[in-house]
Amino acid sequence: MTKCCNECRAHDDRTAKLDEIITRYKDTRGSLIQVLHEAQELYGYLPFEVQVYISKKMDIPLAEIYGVVSFYTAFSIYPKGEYQIKVCIGTACYVKGAGDILDKFRMKLSIDVGECTDDGKFSLDSCRCLGSCGLAPVVMVNGKVYAKVTPDQVDDIIAEYSEQKKGACT
Amino acid sequence: MIKSIFDIHDIREKTRADMAVRLTPQTPVKEGYRMQILVCGVAGCQSSDSLEIIKELEKQIRTGGLEKEVKVVKTGCFGLCAQGPIMITYPDQITYVRVKPEDVREIAESHIKGGQPVERLLADDGNGKKIMNALRDLTFFKLQKKNALRNCGCIDPENIDEYIAMDGYRALEKVLTEMSPEDVVQTVKDSQIRGRGGAGFPTGVKWGFAASQQVKQKYVCCNADEGDPGAFMDRSVLEGDPHSVIEAMIIAGYAIGADQGYIYVRAEYPVAVERLGLAIKQAEEYGLLGNDIFGKGFNFHLEIRLGAGAFVCGEETGLLTSVEGKRGEPHPRPPFPAVKGVFGKPTILNNVETYANIPLIILNGADWFSSIGTEKSKGTKVFSLVGKINNTGLVEVPMGMTLREIIYDIGGGIPNGKEFKAAQTGGPSGGCIPASRLDTPIDYDSLVDMGSMMGSGGLIVMDEDTCMVDLAKFFLEFTVDESCGKCPPCRIGTKRMLEILTRITEGQGEPEDLDKLEVLARNIKASALCGLGQTSPNPILSTMRYFKDEYIAHVVDKKCPAGVCKSMIRYIIDSETCRKCGICAKNCPAECIHGDKENGYVIDQDNCIKCGTCLAKCPFKSIFNNA
Amino acid sequence: MNKVNMKIDGISLYVPADYTILEAAKEVNIQIPTLCYLKDINEMGCCRMCIVEVKGAKALQAACVHPVAEGMEVLTHTPKVMEARRVNIELILSNHNSSCQTCTRSWMNCELQTLANKLSVDTIRFEGETKKKPLDIGVSIVRDPNKCILCRRCISVCKNVQTVSVIDTMNRGFNTEIGAAFGMKLADTSCVNCGQCINVCPVGALHEKSDIDEVWNAIYDPAKHVVVQTAPAVRAALGEEFQLPIGTPVTGRMVSALRILGFDKVFDTDTGADLTIMEEATELIDRIRGGGRLPLITSCSPGWIKFCEHNFPDMLDNLSSCKSPHTMFGAILKSYYAEKEGIDPKDIVVVSVMPCTAKKFEAKRPEMQNGGYPNVDVVLTTRELAKMIYDVGIDFPSLEDSDFDDPFGGATGAAVIFGATGGVMEAALRTAADILTGTSADNIEYEAIRGQEGIKIASIEVAGITLRAACAHGLGNARKLLEQVRSRELDLDFIEIMACPGGCVNGGGQPIQQANVRNWRDIKAERAKALYSEDRKMFIRKSHNNPAIKALYKDYLGMPGGSRAHELLHTKYHERPLYKE
Ligand SMILES: Cc1cc2nc3c(=O)[nH]c(=O)nc-3n(C[C@H](O)[C@H](O)[C@H](O)COP(=O)(O)O)c2cc1C
Ligand code: SF4
Ligand code: SF4
Ligand code: SF4
Ligand code: SF4
Ligand code: SF4
Ligand code: SF4
Ligand code: SF4
Ligand code: SF4
Ligand code: FES
Ligand code: FES
Ligand code: FES
Q1: C99 pocket-lining for ligand 5 (C-beta < 6 Å)
Q2: In chain A, which residue's Cα lies nearest the Cα of B305?
Q3: A10: containing domain
């Protein structure tokens, strides 16, 4: 996933990549969601300009694209944090105390679910089941899974990423 | 490229020889590997570093110069996920659990080279007794019957040859060479298999409908959305044995006359998506997917479609809409997908586990399949045992096993000596089963009788610390989040039910709220457009049915008996027994315990977030709550 | 067609196999209540109001989309059904800004209000969170999301009928909303202001931006000379607002009412229409003779104009340079008429009563000005006129007829049929044929381009020339037709496009008929019939024979297409982006 502050838009070679994605799906029927996935991978989120571009190239009305983007939780029109924390609150995790873990992240990062810290470092999301229910409760940070998380571990997880350096484009 | 059936036979024989220590552990091998070490390489164990372990093992083997003798195989899930990462050696079938990368050296020295298993890492029976051959001697494995999961934890899912070695694609061969499409449909009908993904509709009947449509273009779809939180059996099949689903879909295509398939996988399963992609590629390279399969003039193509985080896309019409790249909103049936599905064409949709059973039914016959299970529910079912249970993981058992056997014998009972309270099946669409029903044999119909449903097989065990009103509220939150918003009963009705439940769990409930809940539940069930809405009241109805007293306690006495609903709890320091040590104050995350060692401590109730830390930390048990 | 035997409420019936339960029930006089359903336009089955019990089905089924089947047994009013319908209404109302007293749709035709009453919903038991969202107020269209019940009829019409597709469903669950992408205002999108969404909305969530106050202020201002002009389609539908049967022409009563309201002069936009024909027929002949850009496309529908600017900028040069009839007429009123009557144009207020919401937008265009004055000051819809009539308390159905004012007086049959699809072309052909042949043709009824077919194509022989002509109404049809023209699949000389399906008789400003009427009757055809019958009754049926028009050219304009005509009556349009970026 691209971690990007978006300041580099000016010299942006991603449009060419987006073109490539759209061309690749040209002959696949009903491929909008697949294109959106890849576009989001490319940009980190799906801002207005990207959706307008896709709309023009794929000849799908912008309103329809936005309708799709806003329907699925996997898509976002806001940039995500450099580290995306996802706390599973699926049933298995919930009965094992995921609610408290989520609360702790909220408190520690001073942000609510769906938000991003001011420095753009962390965003917090809840999700419903990562399929690792046997290891509940589960937290995922940028694809890395933390199993059987306790509230005490929350501090460690945040600390682990706080020290790391910022993303590639600065 | 497999040109003829003989090619695949060759591959099968050759790979079987390679796998000999695994396939026939009793028979000593003369050539090839003397030992194969299977390490679970799917998501659960990956998150506890199983890939690191594999690397380390390979390193040890290399440095010991054992590459020709010992082989490491990355497999799918063994089911014992909670104790992961899991590792099983062949031919001696030693089962290691909770292996850490740093343990590998010891295993290599002692076991691989010295033949002496490392005892401290062996699986135990829950009572501290170490078990050598867990596959044979551990109750967890002994009581299971693995059909759908037959290859999970046995083969390398990234290697098509290993699937072929396990009789993979033999069913396809049989279908294309010996059976007419009608025969296939009839065999599936005769097996009486019912769908594993939801309501348990007879699969053969569904195929029959689609087959009878006189339309050229048809589609075969696989529901791998697995939205029920707490269920992960489909993931396990996709990651551990993807070809079984692919083979079944090709068979389904032949049976109904479709040449295109879609597998709809949730995006939250990146490993599954990757493995499936690889498997499809391998099958294409072998000519098992594509045009003129086995030279029999039958074409079938398969595409993966990624979900994007919407539970309702598990619902069949929602899924089909999503496959078309649109908002995954369900639409009314009829017309049923078998008549008008993807892009308006006849389509069948089946669940991953349903498909995983199909090759076995073709190979072993309908009678074999229907001899397992109960009168109306045939075969086996995979359950994901999660929640307050010792052996969390995946189990596959014959239909009709009792909940008690599943939870206590296979699942190892409830941790920390707590009491079993209820088990939830069917996820947010299902209901709970109380202790009084522990001895009911589990199948599609008995679950419905109890006010629940099979769903996909998530089985969430709850102990005495669970508040059933809170649980109902949890599921409602889920449905409210996941409602597509198309029809008022679900869009507004579930929201209203959730608001009422929230009031109740916050101590603001009134007796008429219970009546309102019932009116809403009844009418949402009756009039919502799709299964999501229609079943959304089930968690309320079933908890009300079995735990009405808890609702009354919340509404009338304003108490949460399980001590879960935070607004009703007060943490109080007993000044009589408090030794003024200050430990509670130091640990309170809300910093709301005030006082000092002279005058003692009090809790500022307004700022207390009811986290319970103080109660847990007080060394003198001087803090209690009012639950 | 195959037929099936079935039973509804115990009554046996034998109906076509492609019927829905709703249609079958109608046969036995059971009107199952509906809210989201709109025949051929919105068949979603989403509101769950039409639910019925179908024997053998576990849940209740939506009658509006559920096909009948052999042996089916349906019960339409069991306790289970009735309770569920009521609870669903209660739920909808629990998240609805119920403010009926001040709502545009109250009393007359709000389908939600009607249903709640008919189903005897007497309390709302399930109150809770409601969403409060800001209104989107544009020059033509107002969207009130707090009244929207998410039936999606507007989306269907905008997307499938008009192919403008600027509104869609957003978010999901309780947060579901209808609107433009990213919550944009309609004004920032390629919305063409056609108002078709208003006409299909069952509630008051969509309505025109009201300009009634501005009109009253002008009328009450003694310094202003307030003239009103009414479009042809208005007279075909205004009566519906006063419970007269659909298709009742009310020209005379309308003129009387306008006088009572206090307008200084009451004119007929038909005069503008005749003027348009003079100019457009001339332009057509010029282009054919002079090798100008063909096909020539009519330009009197502002909904269509904006659509062309956004979606077919490459075809803007094909557009006739003629302004629309009411703006042409407005330009004349503020020049010729002002001069003639000795009134300072700044004191003239031109009010157009139109079947159209797009004309509100059009009137504000910079292109529609001359000498610093807008050609038209205020546009009212047919519905707004009805409101003013109600405001004053006029007993409209009982009014006596009266005539339009001089000097423009009555118009021609050619102008009257402007209100229906094919009408503009037919009117133009009547004039062009006479000009080309230099005679006066008797055969003036061009049947090939009449009727409700979405795209009508005809070859018409005029004076040895074969004119290849086509009419499209509804922008979806327009898009289809133009794409064929663009790709040279079709080679045409003359195209008439009307943004609204059926033309202006079905414009976005016309009286609204509830779905339970629209589902069973083709109101646009019935209104069109009223116009064609008016045409037949007319003494003068060709624009160039209108004496007022003749006088106007003689006294003031000179030749059709001449320089003064050009200055006042013609304009040019420019490309617009799809979205404000
Ligand atoms: C809200 C909802 C969610 C569902 N989610 C799933 C799912 O995640 N996986 C699945 O296989 N079936 C799911 N189903 C059931 C499917 O609609 C469908 O019945 C099933 O995929 C058919 O396959 P089967 O007959 O093999 O079970 C869901 C149903 C509903 C109503
Ligand atoms: S029941 Fe819920 S999920 Fe299903 S269509 Fe209605 S709103 Fe959507
Ligand atoms: S329950 Fe938690 S917040 Fe409340 S006093 Fe105890 S430690 Fe502090
Ligand atoms: S921890 Fe227990 S003993 Fe110590 S101050 Fe707190 S309540 Fe008192
Ligand atoms: S939309 Fe209908 S129900 Fe709602 S306020 Fe207006 S008249 Fe009343
Ligand atoms: S109808 Fe009833 S609520 Fe509405 S204004 Fe009249 S009295 Fe008031
Ligand atoms: S006015 Fe016309 S174009 Fe605009 S939103 Fe409504 S239907 Fe669509
Ligand atoms: S605005 Fe009107 S037509 Fe559109 S969805 Fe809302 S209620 Fe229906
Ligand atoms: S067809 Fe008539 S009512 Fe519709 S936009 Fe055009 S001019 Fe207005
Ligand atoms: S419920 Fe959390 S991973 Fe499944
Ligand atoms: S995930 Fe490794 S055993 Fe289940
Ligand atoms: S569901 Fe039939 S009218 Fe809305």
Answers
A1: yes
A2: A34
A3: 3-71
